[in-house]
Amino acid sequence: MPRNHRDAQRRLFEIAEGQQGFFTAKQAKAAGFAENTHPYHVQVGNWLREHRGIYRLALFPPAEHPDLVKWALWSKNRDEVIEGAYSHQTALSLYELSDLNPAKLHMTVPTRFRRNSEVPGILVLHYADLPTEDVQTAQGFKYTRPLRTILDLIEADSVERTFLCQALRQALHRGLITRSEVKRVKLRSPAQRLFQDLLRQVA
User: What is the mean pLDDT of residues 115-124?
Assistant: First the structure.
């Protein structure tokens, strides 16, 4: 095997390793794989095509959250920066803060976010410019922090109050949210009233 091909394989593996085995066509090209060779690597079974412009190394161990990585890569901008952060019901399930089991993946993207292609049916997009401190990273994707997640759900008014109460109680009990953080929360009415009602229930 030529040295330059081995180097390309190594570079691609290093990229994919931080993304649970996934990578984009642009990343493969940057690693040293010419664009016209991509179909060949799919055909011979080296790569698995997961979506348009998104692949996975066939021999890489199964991902813990394959869909989360795949659609995070879908949200990359032209500079190859992931713009979407999982939020709302999806982030809540990642923290295991309630019994909610959403059928779709909720993702918050910047207000300027646009795609020429149709948004995949599995995704529910929310548009907001999230502060950096409200987001944390996992292996290959981003998601909102516990307090931001709960506040987003309160403002969206999209889940039953019992789930919100359960999530807030568990987050406080597990130390994922502190009382001092809660005291600083300022929401628009009626979301603020709902938040205060929930706090009284979990006190």
Answer: 89
